[in-house]
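Fold it.
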Amino acid sequence: MTRLRYFAWLREKIGTAEEELELPADIGTVAGLIAWLRGRGPGHAAAFAESNRVRCALDHEFAGPDALIAQAREIGFFPPVTGG
């Protein structure tokens, strides 16, 4: 099982802060996971509609769309963070 965590407006659109899922074996990258998540329902589709606005962390380490997710125990999705 992999824990998926959603932050800020992603959490609001999906309707939950986290979920534990058995991910399909054919999903290998962050981009593949996002594409699969879009199909899970209207909340997920809305949250990941503009995937270029979503950032990801694999086990608390920033990861790009091509990053491999195979060994990740926790995957977090969040909007870009800006400083002031």
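The CA atoms of residues 2 and 73 lie 5 Å apart.
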